[in-house]
Amino acid sequence: MKPESLDALLDSCDTLMLDMDGTLLDLAYDNYMWLEHIPAEYARQNDLSESEARDRLYAIMKRIEGKLSWYCLEHWSDVLELDIAALHRAENDRIGFLPGARDFLETVSAHHVRLLMVTNSHQHTLDIKTDVTGITEFFDDIYTSHALGHAKEDQPFWHALQEAEGFDCAKTVFVDDNATVLQSARDYGVGTLLHITKPDTRRPERDHNSFVGITGVAELLN
């Protein structure tokens, strides 16, 4: 069951941590890039069918899924011999907020709560998305997994974030679309966790069992 109201949620915490992709920004862009556009470019580069390229690319990705390098554009540029950042920039018209997410940020940023972006996004990707959306202007601080040296899926990330931010787990709310990341936050002791169940507007809502689920942050405004 979701919190009764946004005010009730914010009154219960000192710190609100928000993921970016799939929580505030539409994951449709990232899914298009990695499931369609980049495999197509890889196919052209290597004289493969798109099906062969996807199979080869997904096998490479699967080996490091959830690790820091999995989120690194420079890593994939080296591995695939493609300019991944340039491919992202060329498709930046697809970047956008999830429904109601900008209104949510405008509402929350006017509140007393400390507002943090906590993202696995590579800095290059964050810069591209900020250029389009201005998303970073809403936050008191931004923490990326690359800056802290660990992916959010791993406990050392939360220890590094704690050292940098000094947040009180019992008075912290964390919102993310990735159940593995949420479980890592739960293992660390973060008090309130919300799971975004529709991170991609082009895809059906996901099931949620282990965490309190909301379709999107805009649901909290109702």
Question: What does this protein structure show overall?
Answer:
The protein is α/β, with parallel strands linked by helices. It folds into two domains: 6-26 and 97-221, 3-Layer(aba) Sandwich (Rossmann fold); 29-93, no CATH class. 45% of the residues lie in helices and 12% in strands. It has ten helices and six strands, in the order H-E-H-H-H-H-H-E-H-E-H-H-E-H-E-E. The protein has a six-stranded parallel β-sheet with strand order 3-2-1-4-5-6. Helix 7 (123-133) links the parallel strand 2 and strand 3. Helix 2 (28-46) crosses helix 3. The chain is globular.
Which keywords apply here?
Rossmann fold; 10 helices; 6 strands
Structure at a glance:
About 45% of the residues lie in helices and about 10% in strands.
Rg, nearest Å: 18 Å
CATH architecture classification of the largest domain = 3-Layer(aba) Sandwich
The structural class is: alpha/beta
What is the tally of helical segments?
10
Q: What order do the strands of the largest sheet run in, or round the barrel if closed?
A: 3-2-1-4-5-6
The CATH class name of the largest domain reads Alpha Beta
Low-confidence stretches: none
Number of strands: 6
- Strand fraction band? 5-15%
Largest sheet: 6 strands, parallel
Q: Average pLDDT, to the nearest integer?
A: 94
Gap between N and C termini, in Å?
14 Å
The rough form would be described as: globular
Q: Number of domains in the coordinates?
A: 2
Any idea what the CATH superfamily of the largest domain is called? HAD superfamily/HAD-like
